[in-house]
Amino acid sequence: MLARGMSAQFSAADLHLRFGGVVALAGVSIDVERGEIFAIIGPNGAGKTSLLNAVSGLYRPQRGRITLEGRDITGLAPYRVAKLGVARSFQNIELFAGMSVLDNLMLGRHVHMRGGVLDGAVYWGRARAEEVRNREVVEDIIDFLEIEHIRKHVVGTLPYGLQKRVELGRALAVEPRLLLLDEPMAGMNLEEKEDMARFVLDINEERGVTVVLIEHDMGVVMDISSHVAVLDFGKKIAQGTPDEVRADPNVIKAYLGEESEAIRAAERAIAAEPVA
Amino acid sequence: MSSAIAWRRECGTFHTTYAADMALRPTPLARARIAIVIFAALAFGALAGRYELSIANQVGIAAVGALGLNVLVGFTGQISVAQGAFLGVGAYTSAYLTTRIGVPFWVALPAAGLVTAAVGGIFGIPSLRLKGLYLVIATLAAQVVIEWFMIHLVPVTGGSQGIFGIPAPALGPLVFDTERAYYFLTLAAVALAVLGCANLFRSRAGRAFIAIRDQDVAASVVGVDVFRYKITAFMVSSFIVGAAGALQAHHDLIVSPENFNLAVSIEYLGMVIIGGLGTVSGSLYGAAFIRLLPIALATVARSVPGIALNVNVLKEAAFGVAIIGFLILEPRGIAKVWRDIKDYFRLWPFKY
Ligand SMILES: Nc1ncnc2c1ncn2[C@@H]1O[C@H](COP(=O)(O)OP(=O)(O)OP(=O)(O)O)[C@@H](O)[C@H]1O
Ligand SMILES: [Mg+2]
Fold this sequence. Notes:
heterodimer; A: alpha/beta; Rossmann fold; 4-stranded antiparallel beta sheet; 10 strands; globular; B: mainly alpha; two-stranded antiparallel sheet; binds adenosine-5'-triphosphate; binds magnesium ion
């Protein structure tokens, strides 16, 4: 375990995050190696999304440290985290609904472009060349994700599965070093899931992007990830290879216990009470 | 197949380079349409009478102002009711610079834009924390504060009397002191504003504005500094609005506070809603609609005996009815209606 932490590209150490009385993260640590697909699993409300949000800079943890390639990024504003090469998708698709697929992906190029208001208004020379150059990058991604036929469609009008794919495209356009995916396959049919799994694998293998993936579908997790961390109640209850995790008694208990949500909610309320 | 068909039907055109695909008017038909519009606008300037030209000038100036407001409200999603005040800042700046300091119009106009941009940027700061209705209230405060200064900062603004004796713009021997001469100035301003905005919203900074409108959290995680871009949107919008104010000042040759009150802000919001939020062309349609509506009503009223006296009441009512009508029937405004009509004829005589 120690060896993992030493060479990690990205790590979160002892993250604590609470919203009023609700504890979302209670001392979570993960270490992600360069070039791996790292899965985070856990029951509903375990704190998985909160963890990604803390990394993105959307939530500010009360305690703990997040480092990317040796650099402390804890509490950095989201746009600064993006500039350092972290891109993501959201559990409930967060696209620019009124814009075309192309424009959504072009926004992924924002950090790689320079043009300001004046350059844009004049749209000549350097600014125009920059737009065209980045459009080419975006077209490559459109080819890769096989969404050529919808490139000029307004994303708000697209079906759910395609929107998920466009959101992945926007994250790819950032050319991230670290890609955070929050349930990219949720709500998809089998075929769409397989496509998405193939894209994630290709992104990881061909583009060398480190992927942190939240996913409920255990089959997918077992198939594509090299390392798995299991969260429950804001704590990491297990980690290891997919096989190790699957056999872990804590994990089995956490998943079997899912039905008794009412009891868990009560426990959580008690846990959240300040200790006198 | 046949190039004649490709020329006539936009859907039949296929682009081979991204640069061509990214052009503002990508098809020959669209370019032909623009050429016709420009030609018609120039011909109107040469042939129309004084009365028509004066209406056209009012429409053109309002169009620039509405476009500026649309940058903020329609494209960036930050609602402002300080439009009247920002127009005033531009108008008063230019009026002051030309009458009291003797600065030529050509310097005063961009200066008016810059001063208004600075003021707009400052009053945009609350948008970093406030959204929706709360931001409306903050911009209402801006409107009230600026109006107060217009009335009470007498040495600069001339108080409730305002500033008069504003010079008409002059370029060597050419003086823009007739409706016809001014028309060409207004036309140039509209063309510049339209081209600048159309370009802005197909490039990086403009896309960031729209992204903030659609999903500010997602904008921030792709690297858009939301705070900075919101302030920038306030400044860009205010620059254009300030320039429109200056254009108005040198057209009317007088500025006074009642031309820049809250009712003006509401009127301009009406223009961008009716014309089409977040569309460049909609700003023009909305400005034309709101400026022509009272004139059309007055014409009708003259031909119907008995209601002539109530034209003013009728105007207010028609404004309200028009806004409510568009919000219910076509919230995306005239720009959308026009696009539907074009789509219909592009495919005509086939239904699909
Ligand atoms: N912005 C917020 N404000 C208040 N509470 C929050 C907020 N975000 C998350 N929480 C709470 O933190 C806990 C963890 O939520 P989180 O969304 O991280 O879970 P999750 O593991 O992603 O669950 P799911 O599988 O349902 O997506 C939950 O109890 C949730 O209600
Ligand atoms: Mg979640």
